[in-house]
Amino acid sequence: MTATSDRCCCGLLHIKHGTITIGACSLLSTLINGLLFWFDINRMSHHFCIEFCLVLIDVFSVISLFYGILHMRPNFLKPYVYFTLAWCVALVLLFILSLVELINGGQLSVNIAISVAEIFNLAQFGNILRNSSELLTIFSLIGLLLSIALNIWFLCVIFEYYQWLTIQTTKLHFNNHSLAPRL
């Protein structure tokens, strides 16, 4: 039986299995983001390089996470932790700026309404969406808050696994050296 410190997800999973689950969710998210990037971005814009670099860093961090899990190498979890931490900071800044824009009555609400109309090809409902643009913005901000909370939770679980794995590898390293014959 494992100790309670070895458990995550309200005690439902061993910390390693929780980390694998988070890695699988992150891999799926990365693949979806990669596909959306591939089919959606104008390759001539300056945003292409930024988006491309973010997708590559995300892919690298998820691959590094899985390598660290499978080979019990805690330092290979660090790229995922750092990228997720930076991503959480960026999302929090985006939330704050969007909230300020919403409160000041800027164009953010109208831009979100236009984007929703374009995504779902609702040109005929454009006026209705513009009238309810503040509501759409609030729903977008709630979704952003949920994304921030989920990323922070992922970060906490991965960091707990990093600490657990560091202790386990230290014990293993210590046991191997203490059992070795002395010459």
From TrEMBL:
This is G_PROTEIN_RECEP_F1_2 domain-containing protein. The keyword Cell inner membrane does not apply. The chain crosses the membrane at residues 20-41, 48-69, 81-103, 110-129, 135-162. Coiled coil: none annotated. Keywords: Membrane, Transmembrane, Transmembrane helix.
